[in-house]
Write a structure and sequence with these properties.
The protein has 368 residues and is α/β, with parallel strands linked by helices. It folds into two domains: 185 residues, Glycogen Phosphorylase B (Rossmann fold, 3-Layer(aba) Sandwich); 155 residues, Rossmann fold, CATH 3.40.50. It contains 15 helices and 13 strands. The longest helix is centred in the first third of the chain and has 17 residues.
Length: 368
């Protein structure tokens, strides 16, 4: 299929770290679209790598909270207003209002890319005033975005039930690349991704007292300072290492050299319970077994050919037992690793991008 159109995507992320959007934009650019990805520019951020699509970063004086979202959305609206485009896609709820306004003004199709149930994230659902604001935005916007996609069937079903929209499912899975698993003299445990509320750091960090391995945390987020404080509280400064955000190639090096990964969420908020985290597939494609929550989307995929240890008890004791099993049960580890190598051949971006391109092709040339 060959697409010929101008698509704008909008995020509040720093673009150089956003592997998901790099994959999506690269796929559509390769199919013939003229793609522009718009995000934020953080102070001290690395230069953008060359990509087969256009990139624009908007600088904001504010960096967090309501002031940041207000400033970014205003800047985004006026930036988009003077650009030529054939369709626009809002990534998650935090850029949806300017995208809606632009689509109405320019009379172009609008798409919603919902990576999660935004209002049901723990950091939002546990704050009534903030929840009320975002929920009001969601109730206004999502029913007006008839075209969209999300990362798994449970989230798509939730949007259908709440707002009557039929969203496609396009999972965020890494590109299949040749893999040579290196020798691993150190059996370190890896967490990669946002260091945010709801990722079970409150129990993962104390669990490391009973695990004879380092935990390396690659990422940044709204819970990082609390996670670092927990590390000090339990005297684990030499055992729990925080690298901060890493560029994709550096992160891949940490991942491929790890012994095992961690994908944990507490269930306060449906967004966590229905999640399908990027890291779940990143560990799979690096050939490393992982400890993962036993929630529906993960269970369904792991049942294909088990490559993860699933747990439904997120207490420090349960986490420590499961991590020690990955460290010391050689047969279990070998079986899970071999299953990683099998499953990655079936679940990869080369297969998933076909669904993405077909989705946009149908917007340009609707079937029937």
């Amino acid at each position: 299929m060959h697409l010929q159109n101008r698509i704008f995507f909008t995020v509040t992320n720093e673009l150089c770290y956003d592997q998901r959007m790099i994959r999506i934009c690269t796929a559509l650019a390769g199919a013939g679209s003229q793609v522009t990805l718009v995000g934020r520019k953080l102070r001290g951020a690395p230069s953008l790598a060359d990509q087969p699509f256009r990139q624009k970063r908007l600088f904001c004086f504010f960096t967090k909270g309501a002031a940041f979202y207000a400033e970014f959305n205003i800047r985004l609206f006026f930036y988009l207003l003077f650009r030529r485009m054939d369709m626009i896609c809002a990534i998650d709820l935090d850029t949806i209002l300017p995208c809606y306004a632009i689509s109405v003004i320019k009379k172009i199709p609008r798409i919603y890319d919902a990576h999660e149930l935004f209002c049901e994230m723990k950091e939002i659902v546990t704050r009534p005033r903030i929840y009320a604001i975002w929920k009001r935005i969601e109730r206004f916007s999502v029913p007006r975005f008839k075209q969209g996609y999300t990362v798994n069937a449970p989230i798509a079903a939730a949007f259908k039930e709440m707002y009557g929209v039929d969203y496609a499912v396009i999972r965020n899975i890494p590109l299949l690349k040749p893999l040579d698993i290196p020798p691993k003299p150190e059996k370190y445990i890896l967490y990669q991704g946002a260091v945010n509320e709801g990722r079970s750091f409150e129990t993962l960090i104390p669990a490391m007292q009973r695990v004879d391995a380092r935990l390396v945390v690659c990422g940044d987020g709204n819970f990082k300072s609390q996670a670092e404080q927990l590390t000090k509280q339990y005297g684990l400064e030499k055992k729990v290492i925080f690298t901060g955000k890493l560029l994709p190639e550096a992160l891949r090096a940490y991942t491929i050299n790890a012994w095992a990964g961690v994908t944990l969420f507490d269930d306060r908020g449906l967004s966590n319970y229905y999640s399908l985290a990027n890291r779940f597939f990143d560990y799979l494609h690096a050939g490393i077994p992982q400890l993962c929550v036993d929630y529906p989307a993960y269970r369904e995929i792991n049942n294909i050919c088990p490559f993860a240890v699933l747990i439904d008890d997120l207490s420090p004791d349960a986490i420590a037992r499961a991590l020690n099993k990955l460290l010391y049960d050689d047969q279990l580890y070998a079986d899970l690793q071999q299953n990683c190598l099998k499953v990655r051949l079936r679940l990869n971006w080369q297969e998933e991008e076909k669904e993405l391109i077909a989705f946009y092709q149908n917007l340009i040339n609707p079937v029937g």
